């Protein structure tokens, strides 16, 4: 899958920023690939990019319109179809992270064929996966896990990759969601894989590696989330992580989209270790990544110090303060990786 850039980021009429997290992720990590944003009336998200029309984007050289939207069920909203058709008409490809294939709409399929353009469904894969085998693989793996969905698991893994490679460690981000695939250009959207093959798909994206190589596997969902725990568990078993980082957003009380209360960080650590031991008995926590965006800086620092003391683990906000303390812990816990640098 080769998605041409630069991009026009399509936000549609999303009701909040979390509903556009795919677009935000791409802009946060690949801003230089993005020419502008297209928003429909009622859109409540803003990427900080110039607002441009499809025609303006095409004139500026945009190659692909990215449908950067996440919604319940990954459905294609009827209100978005005219913009998608206009992009195809203006000579752009269209890429989407929705569950619904773009080409399942006959109007979009016909327009793509008529104008000779490509449709990319990042959540769909033609790769066939085996069931997971649970056999220990060479190399080292870290998985980001969460107290909820949309708490920063992808950002934490990407921040770890940046910091670890800057220190000379052999580390690579492994995408398991549509935004991560857009950012890295590779990976598998795990939540679109048939349940029996989730752990096998993770084994496929993180195969045997050199003894000191780190695969930083992007987490999905939460073991405590009634909607997504099955995906999370399959990912945990397939990743066989040697280490994991717990991701958390401190202002939430209920998990996103349901009425269930948020688990504690301690509960997540305990259940992740108990479940993870099935495929890696040596699994251990190495840090806590907290999204402190809603807290003032002094309040955030106080909260992080409290969390670190409670769990005897480094705690940081990967975007606000960096992941240096977590990488320090990794280098101390895994001397083979430190020697490789």
From TrEMBL:
Chain ranges of the D-glutamate N-acetyltransferase-like C-terminal domain: 129-327
Domain D-glutamate N-acetyltransferase-like N-terminal, chain residue ranges per copy: 41-124
InterPro entries: DgcN-like, DgcN-like_C, DgcN-like_N, P-loop_NTPase
Gene3D superfamilies listed in its UniProt record: NAD(P)-binding Rossmann-like Domain, P-loop containing nucleotide triphosphate hydrolases
Entry superkingdom: Bacteria
A Pfam family matched in the record: DUF1611
Protein known as: DUF1611 domain-containing protein
């Amino acid at each position: 899958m080769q998605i041409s850039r630069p991009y026009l980021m399509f936000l549609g009429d999303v009701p909040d920023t979390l509903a556009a997290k795919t677009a935000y992720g791409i802009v946060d990590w690949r801003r230089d690939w993005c020419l502008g944003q297209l928003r429909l009336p009622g859109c409540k998200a803003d990427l900080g990019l110039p607002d441009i029309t499809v025609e303006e984007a095409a004139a500026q050289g945009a190659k692909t319109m990215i449908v950067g939207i996440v919604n319940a069920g990954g459905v294609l909203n009827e209100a978005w179809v005219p913009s998608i058709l206009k992009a195809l008409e203006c000579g752009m490809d269209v890429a989407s992270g929705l569950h619904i294939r773009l080409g399942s709409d006959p109007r979009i399929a016909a327009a793509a064929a008529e104008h000779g353009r490509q449709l990319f469904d990042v959540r769909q894969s033609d790769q066939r996966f085996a069931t997971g085998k649970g056999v220990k693989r060479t190399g080292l793996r870290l998985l980001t896990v969460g107290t909820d969905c949309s708490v920063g698991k992808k950002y934490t893994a990407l921040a770890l990759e940046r910091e670890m490679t800057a220190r000379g460690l052999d580390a690579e981000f492994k995408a398991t969601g549509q935004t991560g695939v857009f950012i890295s250009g590779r990976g598998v959207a795990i939540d679109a894989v048939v349940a029996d093959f989730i752990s096998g798909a993770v084994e496929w994206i993180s195969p045997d590696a050199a003894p000191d190589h780190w695969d930083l596997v992007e987490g999905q969902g939460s073991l405590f989330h009634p909607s997504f725990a099955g995906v999370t568990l399959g990912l945990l078993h397939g990743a066989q992580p040697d280490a994991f980082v717990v991701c958390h957003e401190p202002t939430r009380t209920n998990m996103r989209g349901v009425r269930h209360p948020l688990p504690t960080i301690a509960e997540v650590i305990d259940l992740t270790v108990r479940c993870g031991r099935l495929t890696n008995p040596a699994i251990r926590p190495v840090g806590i990544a907290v999204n402190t965006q809603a807290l003032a800086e002094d309040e955030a620092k106080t909260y992080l110090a409290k969390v670190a003391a409670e769990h005897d683990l480094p705690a940081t906000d990967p975007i606000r303060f960096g992941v240096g303390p977590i990488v320090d812990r990794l280098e101390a816990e895994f001397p083979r990786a430190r020697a490789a640098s």
